[in-house]
Amino acid sequence: MHGWALAILIAGAVVFEMALIYVIMRATVGATFRKLSKAYPFRAPGEDAVRKNFQSFKFGVINAGFAVHVAVDADHLHLMPAAILRWCGAQPASVPWSEVELKGKMGSFRRARVGGVDLYGPRWCLDLACPAGD
What pTM was computed for the model? Predict the structure, then answer.
C-alpha cells in the first residue's frame, strides 16, 4: 500500500470516529440534559442568585465535569451548559426546587432525581433544595 493511501485511510478513520462520537454524544445529551430543558424551560435567574461557572454534574450516563454553569435562587436551580455541551444539543434549564428530589450525599456532591433524570451535582447548590437539612 502506498504512503498516501495509508494517510487517506487513517484520515477517513479519524473523521468517521469523530462523527460517531458526536452522534453518540448528541443522543445521550438528548436523553438527559435536553429532557430537563424541555420539562423545565430556562428563565432568567433572580437578582439574588448565586452563580458559579464550570461546575461538575453527572446527568444519567453523561459526566459533565466542569461543563455546567449554575445559578441558584430562591425558586430554581438554573443549569446552563458550557459550550461543549451546547455543541451536542444541550440547552439551559430552570428546575423548580419542588421538583428536586434529594437522594443522598457523597463528599462534596449530592445525588438527586429531577424529572426522571438521576443527577449528581455540587452540594453547595443542591443543599438549597432542602435548607433545613435531611
Answer: 0.83
